[in-house]
């Protein structure tokens, strides 16, 4: 199948309310051609409603959606030329696999011979050659979602919409499908918008991630940037895990920000966003950014001394909880190969250190 | 009393309680135990359906068999039963032009009722299955309402609407139709009344079937480029066939066997099989011939139901193939 240049999708001031409940409020998004954009957030954050508004299955209360610059806000679903994958696959149970795949082509009035040719080609593309005569009920979950994929891409949609597409699959199969989907989207140059609550899925699949919360966009950034420079407590907490230490900004010089918390501990960061001294912020430290050394160390920036409380073996890492003040604990990930000789034991006093580049500064709620 | 006391009291009295609950030895308890083990064992299913099966065997199956037996006997002109079996009644039924016409009319009315009921049922069933809860309830009550009215009352009601000076003629005249057709005592009157009362028998199973269709399947069809009409034709209709089959075979059976409605609204010019049976048995006292017509009616209804359900279940089995 020839590579088609994906369309650009733009959402401007999109709102949706049901009665008094504002489900989506003032969402502005842009997915450029061929890009995979993930809408990530906990359930009820409005991500699925946003996707359904792009599909036309839900009408926005306000705002505009454009695809390649042309407004589709008033366009009925069947004329938007989109492809969509659902969590429960939503195959037509009364049609064979081939008939399922051919559905969109039949609807577009493509000739019988051409329909058969394109549908078989699409089945090849999702590695289901020879499955055409089966009924959907005779396929496994992964195979069914591949059929759904073939059905969605066969008529070369302008945009592919994915609604928690792999939520019903087990972990191993999900990872396989994610890699496959990513390859397929890149091959076809399809603009893809993915809805997920699984941060890992968003990180693996997406070029851009939009984190949503309570109907609003919290942050939009490239997958890596959103992990390395989250703007808020919510984003830092939702993507990966973080230790949060509320602190105030003391000084900003050049690229360096100095913060101090209530206990007088000093933090220095070179990756802080543009906050001012008036902003309520916290220092966020990823468990894997921290290095532990035994014993007490002299007071310095980005250094904490505390007592080990407990540790938990998790396979590749050991999670260690360290009490650093009254009732305040931080969690540190110790790679298993480093923990071989000197493993922090409960009751011991250790020092935690991390670099300025790993000191995230996030907005507090 | 403290919490510990309460626990203490129960603990000390529990052996006595257990002793009191123990079932005394004896044949009654042994029998009860046996009955219970039967009930909870592999015969549970049989035991649960047994009362109904026995009831139907005694009050339905046996009379039907008697009727079939009766249809194979004959009586002489003076009304005395003749010994031995004969197919004479059936030969008479099929050789007479009059009886054959009545048979054909019955099948025609039953088929037309099924067809019209199915046509009207779809919008109603979709509303019940997919509309808001208030609207769904309103539609359900409205279509079930005719069943609450006695069949004779209902039929006379239709009579006052459909007769020469009835409500329908009046409305048509008001709309400028100079010579409004009189529907009473025609097949149309029977058809209208049958569709009216048997509609819920299609709507309810159909609404159930449509309600079971996954909404995302419809959405997937729409995103893939199907108009709402195409979605109905290619998704909702085929997936609702099991419900339609149940509904249509119910309506076909009920309208083929209808007696009061065609009697009151069809008059003597268009009798159906039911009227014919009544004439033979109550007026002419020819029980064997009446039994033959009844047997034919039952066979006809049974055959049409079996064929219809078989067709659909074969299709349906394909959709779920491999899932089991």
What does it look like?
The complex is a heterodimer of chains A (365) and B (324). With 365 residues, chain A is an alpha+beta fold. Chain A has two domains: 9-228, Rossmann fold, CATH 3.40.50; 233-363, OB fold (Dihydrolipoamide Acetyltransferase, E2P) (Beta Barrel). Helix content of chain A is 23%, strand content 35%. In chain A, strand 1 (9-18) and strand 2 form a beta hairpin. Helices cover 77% and strands 1% of the residues of chain B. Chain B is built from 14 helices and two strands; from the N terminus they run H-H-H-E-E-H-H-H-H-H-H-H-H-H-H-H. Chain B is globular. Chain B has a domain at 94-317: Orthogonal Bundle (MetI-like fold), CATH 1.10.3720.10. Chain B has helices spanning 3-21, 27-40, 44-71, 88-95, 97-130, 133-144, 151-162, 167-174, 187-211, 215-223, 228-256, 260-266, 273-283, 287-319; strands at 74-75, 81-82. A two-stranded antiparallel sheet of chain B has the order 1-2. Chain B is mainly alpha-helical and 324 residues long. Classes of the chains: A alpha+beta (365), B mainly alpha (324).
In the CATH hierarchy, what is the superfamily of the largest domain in chain A?
Answer: P-loop containing nucleotide triphosphate hydrolases
The class by helix and strand makeup of chain A works out as alpha+beta
The CATH topology of the domain at 94-317 in chain B comes to MetI-like fold
- Can you tell me the CATH topology of the largest domain in chain A? Rossmann fold
Structural class of chain B: mainly alpha
What is the global morphology of chain A? elongated
Given this structure, which CATH class of the largest domain in chain A is correct?
A: Alpha Beta
Distance between the termini of chain A: 48 Å
Shape of chain B: globular
Within the largest sheet of chain A, what's the order of strands? Answer: 6-7-8-3-9-10
Overall average residue pLDDT of chain A: 91
Strand content of chain A: 35-45%
The CATH class of the domain at 94-317 in chain B is Mainly Alpha
Secondary-structure element string of chain A: EEEHEEEHHHEHEHEEHHEEEEEEEEEE
